[in-house]
């Protein structure tokens, strides 16, 4: 672990009350894992990371002067946006690609990846959110992801999407502000549902009543610097307006659609 830090914290104005997260920002692996038996080309695909999200998060954090946490390891090693007991935490096959380095896997290796990469990332997220909070004032947490323009040969029409469980406080205004210009198609819990037990938003926001939203941008729209800059210019004023809403800094626990919270 000492030669591979599993997270990066981008410093910002913690008093702003906003935190950005990028679980799948990078496609890197510790040197000891080689390429997990995959061709190098696999690490340029969505199975390895969320294409465009690192640049998008860095630029937004800089423009808004807010802290952010980036995951520095590929989701092929272990997925930080999955609960510790999720069977897809360490994937054996992803979008048709068999991952030799993950199958077979011993319980010892499974636990090692949790202890060395997954848990340190989440501790960094927890610390950053706590630092952005103040007595009686919750931070607004916005998680950034990206999705493929096609899935199994079918085009996805959405330019962006907002995923969520049952806390719609940040979701409803975010959907409205994104859709207001009328020039993009915005998905509401598309192309997949945002209620996932144990994922990052569940763990750090749903369980503690922190306002939040998960925003996905289609990967072909942020696949280069021009696209990233265009989306930073689109999103920065939207995020500012959300953060200025005092109701998005109140603690309120909503029941999860995935079932009761663990005791």
UniProtKB/TrEMBL annotation:
> What Pfam family is a match, any one?
FGase
What InterPro entries has UniProt attached to this entry?
Answer: N-FG_amidohydro (IPR007709), UCP029730 (IPR011227)
Hydrolase as a keyword of this entry, yes or no, is: yes
Q: Which GO terms describe its molecular function?
A: hydrolase activity
Q: Which domain of life is it from?
A: Bacteria
- Keyword annotations from UniProtKB, A to Z: Hydrolase
In Swiss-Prot or TrEMBL terms, this protein is called N-formylglutamate amidohydrolase
Species name for this entry?
Neorhizobium galegae bv. orientalis str. HAMBI 540
């Amino acid at each position: 672990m000492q030669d591979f830090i599993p997270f990066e914290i981008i410093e910002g104005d913690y008093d702003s009350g906003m935190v950005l997260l990028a679980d799948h920002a990078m496609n890197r692996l510790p040197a000891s894992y080689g390429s997990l038996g995959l061709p190098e080309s696999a690490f340029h695909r969505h199975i390895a990371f969320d294409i465009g999200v690192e640049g998008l998060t860095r630029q937004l954090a800089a423009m808004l002067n807010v802290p952010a946490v980036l995951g520095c390891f590929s989701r092929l090693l272990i997925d930080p946006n999955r609960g510790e007991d999720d069977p897809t935490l360490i994937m054996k096959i992803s979008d048709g690609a068999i991952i030799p380095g993950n199958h077979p896997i011993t319980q010892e290796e499974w636990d090692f990846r949790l202890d060395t990469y997954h848990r340190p990332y989440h501790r960094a997220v927890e610390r950053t959110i706590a630092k952005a909070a103040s007595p009686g004032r919750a931070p607004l947490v916005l998680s950034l992801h990206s999705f493929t323009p096609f899935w199994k040969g079918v085009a996805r029409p959405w330019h962006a999407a907002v995923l969520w469980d049952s806390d719609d406080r940040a979701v409803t205004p975010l959907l409205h502000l994104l859709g207001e210009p009328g020039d993009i198609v915005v998905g509401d819990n598309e192309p997949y549902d945002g209620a996932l037990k144990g994922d990052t938003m569940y763990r750090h926001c749903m369980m503690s009543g922190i306002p939040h939203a998960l925003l996905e941008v289609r990967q072909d729209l942020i696949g280069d610097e021009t696209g990233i800059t265009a989306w930073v210019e689109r999103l920065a004023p939207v995020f500012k307006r959300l953060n200025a809403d005092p109701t998005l800094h109140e603690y309120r626990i909503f029941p999860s659609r995935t079932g009761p919270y663990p005791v």
